Each structure stands twice: as structure tokens, then as C-alpha cells.
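Worked Example 4.2. Read the sequence first, then its C-alpha cells.
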Amino acid sequence: MKIRYFILFFLILISVGIYVAFFYEKHLDEKVYKNGDITLKVYKISRISTVHDYIDLERWGYCKNIYEANTGGIYNIILKKDMVIIQTYKAGIYELAAKTLETEIKIDSSITTYRYMKKFQPQNAKYYKQ
């Protein structure tokens, strides 16, 4: 009888864990960029085995996800009038909108390993200087 209750408790515990992992996705390290009527939210979502970067564009009361990629690839975000420039470093991009809500989205992948390391890991940047 005790084994049945233990198994039932264990199954309920696993069910709650799966619900939290897949349906409750907390935004980590959220940063907000604003320029006029454009608002960008840059955040990470941690799943069971990986972390992904996301960018949401808000304009005129609408919100669209414009970018999804492996984490660690976003170097900088630049907002210019109706244009968003996402500077990336070796990002495995899964989803990217080219234009949405009358806003053009461009990827700048010219970031070198040295520049990336100098910004995020300055103590190791000297090993990548050429």
C-alpha cells in the first residue's frame, strides 16, 4: 500500500515539474531598448537542456517575436528610426523576421572573436587578439 502512495506521489511530482518546465517560461536577464514608438525586449529562456535568446518587438500595441537563437550570440542591439540591427557572434539562429510592424530587421554578423571576448570576458580577450 505504501508503495502505491509513493508511486502516485512521484508521478504527481514529475507532472508538476514538466508543467513548470514547459509551460511557465520565465524571462531571464531581460533588457529593454526603446526608440520612439519601438520597444525591444531581449531575454533568455532556460529549458531543460539549453538556454535560448529571444527578442520581442513591440509597436503600436502589438508584440511580435522577431528573433530566436542559441544563447551567447547577441553582441549588441542598435535602434535607428524604423530599423533594428542585431549584432551577433556565431549565433545559431532558429527564427528571424526580416520585416514586421513596419520595422526592418537586419543581422550584423561582423563581430570578431576578439571584440566579443573583450566585451563579455575581458580577462580572456588577449588570447584572441590578432
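Now turn to a second chain, presented in exactly the same format:
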Amino acid sequence: MRKSLPSIPIRAKQFPNFIKNIFIRTILLLQNTHSQPTFHLCYFSCNSYFKYLYCSLHSLLKFSSNHNFKIYVFNDNEQPLSDAQILSIQSLIPGTKVIPWPKSMGWGANQIKTIWQAYEKVAEHALDNDIVARVDSDVFFFNDIIFRAVAKSDADLIGDGHYVNFEYTQGGCYFFRADAIKKIVKLLATENIESLLGEIEPIVEDIAAHHFARHLKLKIWLTWFMMFPDELRNAGGITKWMNWKFSCLHFVMKNKKAMLTTYQNELLQIQEIDSFSKIIDTE
């Protein structure tokens, strides 16, 4: 009876890809560019996610404020943010647009349609070289490395692939060139979206976004920038190594209270915690 060979640890399998991506990122960050794109960040959120949405926006302001941002919050019609919550968001980042919108969590053809209608709405007001990004409410940032790399990259779609073995663009946070959004919008206007989505499984927004880009043979860069809770736990916190390797943390877990405690304990100064805690309790 033949002995089965020991499986290769996932970190060992991904090591060549990691080295390649770090090399690409390093080269990009060393480049000098005269024009900086505007980042049009799309959040799909609701009343019960206000705490996490505010935390995400707070981190953006704290760690990436030297970039040009326009914030769009697509506000769930079924469970909308309150007036007080909207005021808190717009007081934090003036100019934030809060737009009433159908539920767009990302499951199934109907929600994917409404997500791409939102991207289309945003891209209409963007230059071709601008960036249209999806950011989930349960993602917070702790440096701006990914924004600097995306700004200098010539890829049409930039996303994290390490947690899904680089099979597709992981949801939570990914970046499209506005020109690429416009190309996909044209695709969805001429081809049946149900037929396109029939080519993927499961039918969820992140796999769909990657599939649309591949269908049009757009340039995709799958890299490392998004940490997950188990990686945070294994590392013992946002260490210097994690801060160099990643730019944000995606709390894909049912109990998202850990997102708030992690953000406060790891990234806020003592004098910031009280005011932050009071605002996230806004109803």
C-alpha cells in the first residue's frame, strides 16, 4: 500500500505568488506619478450596520486622508440609516452622498444587478482613470499602501485573492478603473446577465465582478492587502509585519463586535476612544 504524500501547507504553496506580488507592489510604489486618481468608494449599508460603517469611514479618514476620495453610501431601503446616523457620517466626511437604494448585499442576480447599477451611477461622474471601489462596512483600514499601489497600477481590476487561493477577487474590498466599469456596464446592457451569471457558482457579487472582468479580458491584479480574523488571531494583533503585508481587515464573521473592539484597542489613541464609542451608538 502506497503512503500518501504529505500535503503542502497553503503558505508554502502561495509563497512564490507572494514574492511576485510584493515585487510588483514595491516597483509600483517607487514610481513617480504626477496625476492622482480620485477614489470613488461605494458602501452598501443599513441601519444595523451603522457602527461598522462609521468605523470603516473613520479608519479611512485616519489612515488614508492624503488621497482624493468621494464616498457613496447606498442606503438600504428596507432598513435605512436614520437621519442622525447620516448626519454623523456626513459630519465625519463632509460631502458623503447617501443614496436610497434597493437591498444589495450581493447574493443572486437581482442584487448583483442593483450593485452594478450603483457602480454605473458612480462611474458616470468619474474620469476614465479614476477608481471605483467597493468597500464593505465590516472592513477597516490601518494604512494606505493599497491605495498608493492601486493609484499607480495599470490594472483594470485590483483585488485580494490570497484567502480564496487566487481563484477570484475576494469580496470586502476591490478596485475597478472607472473605464473598466463602463465597459462592463455596456456588456450587461447587451448580454443577458442571468446567462452570464449561469457560468459561475455560487452567484455572488465578488465572483461575478471577477467573471465580468475576465469575460472582457480586462487586466486583473490579484494581490495581498486584506487580512482576515484568523490571520489577526494567529499574528497576535496588527503587528509591524501585518501592517507591512496588509492594508485592511475584513471581519467576515457573524459577531462583528470584534471589529469595533479591535479597532479601538489596536488603532485608536486613548483620547479618541470615548468620542468614537459615543458616535457609533447613534440610532
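Notes for the reader: Residues 10-30 form the longest helix (21 residues). The chain has one domain: 35-280.
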